[in-house]
Design brief:
Shape of chain B: globular
Order of helices and strands of chain A: EEEEEEEEEEE
Order of helices and strands of chain B: EEEEEEEEEEE
Distance between the termini of chain A: 41 Å
Structural class of chain A: mainly beta
Number of strands of chain A: 11
Number of strands of chain B: 11
Strand content of chain A: over 45%
Strand content of chain B: over 45%
Radius of gyration of chain B: 13 Å
Distance between the termini of chain B: 37 Å
Number of helices of chain B: 0
Oligomer: heterodimer
Shape of chain A: globular
Largest sheet of chain A: 6 strands, mixed
Number of helices of chain A: 0
Radius of gyration of chain A: 13 Å
Helix content of chain A: under 10%
């Protein structure tokens, strides 16, 4: 079945890089997404990557996709306090349905 | 451009009561989604509309949940009767034709006592 897994928590020091990892199961996924959710707010799309790409960079964000291992990662360079949030990995399945992971809570240490 | 609007933002009811949520998508967005997000989990799709037609309601508990989008714009999601396990945030999202991105509203936080 379709499933997306990610670790629940990540703590990094301010200024360091954060790397959030995700694994998915649907090999026919066309798009993979990273969403950000701040307390009391809806989900905000951070970035997405087509399944035929290996990497996508957007300012401080770098997405890496390993299709063979069905592994997706999000790297946030120079992590700031404003990056504190829950980050959701999601895949667009073959049925054009978006399946979300359970989210990784990123906390920033001074 | 106005975002996806949802109301109410918060709702507290007792079990076995009924509740309704409202969503106004971004203008021109033909596709509308309702998600349920239980605390500590990712959003789970309940129903997807394309204009006023249902595309996918396979995960909607139809014995108690219903949704409609009669004129292909606003949508309402109803729970009747509510159970304790329905406590969650209900998110509405919309998507423009040909676009990859779903835009999410702020959600309605439902607490069932």
């Amino acid at each position: 079945g379709e499933d997306v897994e990610q670790s629940l928590f990540l703590s990094v020091r301010e200024g360091d890089s954060s790397v959030i990892n995700c694994t998915y199961t649907d090999s026919s996924s066309t798009y993979l997404y990273w969403y950000k959710q701040e307390p009391g707010a809806g989900l905000q799309l951070l970035t997405y990557i087509f399944s035929n790409m290996d990497m996508k960079q957007d300012q401080r964000l770098t997405v890496l996709l390993n299709k063979k291992d069905k592994h997706l990662s999000l790297r946030i360079a120079d992590t700031q306090t404003g990056d504190s949030a829950i980050y959701f990995c999601a895949e667009c399945s073959s049925a054009s349905k978006i399946i979300f992971g359970s989210g990784t809570r990123l906390s920033i240490r001074p | 451009e106005a975002g996806v609007a949802q109301s109410p933002r918060y709702k507290i009811i007792e079990k076995r009561q009924s509740v309704a949520f409202w969503c106004n998508p971004i203008s021109g967005h033909a596709t509308l989604y309702w998600y349920q997000q239980i605390l500590g989990q990712g959003p789970k799709l309940l129903i997807q509309f394309q204009n006023n037609g249902v595309v996918d309601d396979s995960q909607l508990p139809k014995d108690r949940f219903s949704a409609e989008r009669l004129k292909g714009v606003d949508s309402t999601l109803k729970i009747q009767p509510a159970k304790l396990e329905d406590s969650a945030v209900y998110l509405c999202a919309s998507r423009a034709p040909g676009d990859n991105e779903q835009f999410f509203g702020p959600g309605t936080r439902l607490t069932v006592l």
